[in-house]
Design goal:
Number of strands: 18
Distance between the termini: 43 Å
Helix content: 40-55%
Radius of gyration: 28 Å
Structural class: alpha/beta
Mean pLDDT: 84
Oligomer: single chain
Number of helices: 18
Strand order of the largest sheet: 5-6-7-3-8-9
């Protein structure tokens, strides 16, 4: 894959400027850069959704598979099996081939020649897609990804966030594409599926471009890094994984800073000579000539002066509950719940939280972690049992699929809070990197990372003393994850959490863990965290 002289801007915002890159075949590439650098935009160009102002990317003849960051289903009643099988358009191609042969006897010679040429192309594609081995390939993939038979008959609209990611990945892998575009592929994945994906990518005979904030994942899957520089709008390819890239880039930046400092010193020296020459008397011909010579040198040095990479502002978060919570913030007693027509997810589940406790829920995807949180906030109703919050509990809920946001409203409208003036809200949104007219953007035009920032801002503005978090680090870069973790570590309130991010969990200081579906309550330890994340198949 090769990109040459790429130029793209959206209004006054430059994305790429004479940017070029070349990626060898069968290479796994991590795509990195600050928010807004153009990572997802590159994917949209490759998918034909965005057109470059000029330049080109050579992807002739390549079949591209795409895993978007936000998984959406247009046909929610489709079964999981049909959805995954749709990764290879075998049925559509077979239908078109049958249609061609049906009409061959009805057309003239010229049209017959065209149809036969099209039929040959379709057959070539079917051969590449392993038409007669497809069912066996899919069954083998389903087995490796540990997708239960019961899930295959489910409607895609009934899947949990983790299940959506899992089957979307299965469809992508089944597609047998030449190029994989993966946008935050580990979001919502359980440890077992993540391990399978890592192993698959290591053995994948094709090119993969991966946008991910999961550093550990990048380090074990990629052999090159594509860095999109938001300062100079260029693209550069680095050898090695993410950790090697960071060391190389840090060294480059240190050397660049040394060069710039030396350049600036030389410019100051030349400016001083030019200034002295300008102030000298007309009869001082020697100094005047020297000044003119140095002016020419100065102009050249100013043209050659390198630009420092811009330091982008970090998210600034402060959590400050309005009031203290009671000694027993939450008591769940004999809770039983199951979706209609399905087995109960849990029966007679009971647990109690203590004041300022940080409580983690663990278990496999689809086992009911997010469902339990939805029960706590009354988005679902239990079959039996009680959920009792302390009368002083002020509850805020962060949903993993960001459904607390109204996509048709602006950023400012979404965080609207009667306790704050518009001026105060705009100031706070500035801390979440929404400046100026950004606050008037509709949420439906924002990137997933931007939406996550709006959602986090919205719940923190509630100044709640009881916060419920469902996968809060999805869509955030490692630095922002660390900032969020540090703030929740110092949070003076009660916290209940679902997360597939062990480093984040470790950072915030969890006190106890609820293991589903058994309903066991265990004291927190790093060893237990590792066990339930990396051996979570034992939870079934």
């Amino acid at each position: 894959m090769k990109g040459q002289n790429l130029n793209l801007s959206f209004g006054n915002e430059m994305i790429y400027e004479e940017a070029s890159f070349e990626i060898p075949s069968n290479t796994k590439v991590g795509v990195v850069g600050v928010n807004g650098a153009g990572k997802t935009t590159l994917f949209r160009i490759l998918l034909g959704e965005v057109e470059l102002d000029s330049g080109n990317i050579d992807i002739r003849g390549m079949r591209i598979g795409h895993l978007p960051q936000e998984i959406e289903f247009t046909e929610k009643n489709m079964t999981v099996w049909d959805y995954i099988y749709g990764g290879r358009p075998i049925k559509e191609l077979q239908s078109e081939l049958t249609e061609i042969y049906t009409h061959l006897s009805e057309v003239d010679q010229k049209e017959e020649k065209r149809l036969l040429k099209r039929a040959a192309k379709i057959q070539d594609t079917l051969d590449v897609l392993d038409e007669y081995e497809a069912d066996e390939d899919l069954l083998e993939l389903i087995e490796h990804m540990q997708i239960d038979d019961s899930m295959l008959e489910m409607r895609v609209g009934d899947l949990s966030g983790g299940q959506k990611s899992k089957i979307a990945f299965a469809k992508l892998l089944f597609s047998n594409s030449d190029v994989l575009l993966l946008d935050e592929p580990t979001n919502h994945l359980d440890a077992t599926t993540k391990d399978f994906v890592i192993d698959y990518l290591k053995n994948y005979r094709g090119t993969a471009l991966i946008i991910s904030h999961d550093i550990d994942f990048l380090n074990v899957t990629v052999d090159k890094i594509m860095f999109i520089n938001k300062t100079n709008h260029k693209i550069k390819i680095y050898d090695g994984n993410y950790s090697k890239f960071k060391k190389t880039y840090a060294k480059e930046m240190a050397e660049k800073e040394t060069r710039i400092v030396n350049q600036e010193r030389e410019i100051e020296r030349l400016q001083e000579i030019v200034k002295r020459a300008e102030q000298a008397s007309r009869t001082n011909h020697k100094l005047k000539r020297l000044g003119e010579s140095r002016r020419i040198q100065l102009e050249k040095k100013l043209d050659e002066l390198e630009t420092r990479d811009k330091e982008y502002k970090r998210v600034n978060i402060k959590i400050d509950p309005l009031r203290e919570i009671g000694k027993v913030p939450l008591e769940v007693t004999n809770l039983t719940f199951g979706y209609p027509g399905k087995d109960n997810l849990y029966e007679n589940l009971s647990f109690t939280l203590t004041k300022n406790e940080k409580f983690l829920i663990v278990g496999e995807n689809g086992i009911g972690k997010s469902t339990l949180l939805k029960l706590l906030v009354s988005k679902l109703t239990p079959k039996s049992g009680t959920i009792s919050f302390n009368m002083k509990a002020d509850v805020a809920y962060y949903a993993q699929e960001l459904e607390i946001l109204d996509e048709n409203k602006t950023v400012l409208q979404n965080v609207n809070n009667p306790n704050y003036s518009e001026l105060a809200l705009r100031s706070i949104l500035g801390n979440f990197l929404f400046k100026g007219d950004d606050v008037y953007k509709k949420v439906n035009v924002l990137s997933p990372g931007e939406k996550a920032r709006v959602a986090l801002c919205k719940i923190l503005l509630q100044q709640a003393n009881f916060i419920i978090l469902d996968e809060p680090t999805n869509h955030f870069d490692p630095e922002t994850q660390s900032i969020i973790g540090e703030n929740f570590k110092n949070y003076d309130g009660t916290l209940i959490l679902v997360s597939h991010n062990p480093s984040f969990v470790e950072e915030i200081g969890i006190t106890r863990m609820l293991v589903l579906p058994e309903g066991k309550i265990l004291n927190y330890s790093k060893e237990l965290l590792d066990y339930y994340y990396y051996l979570n198949t034992e939870l079934m």
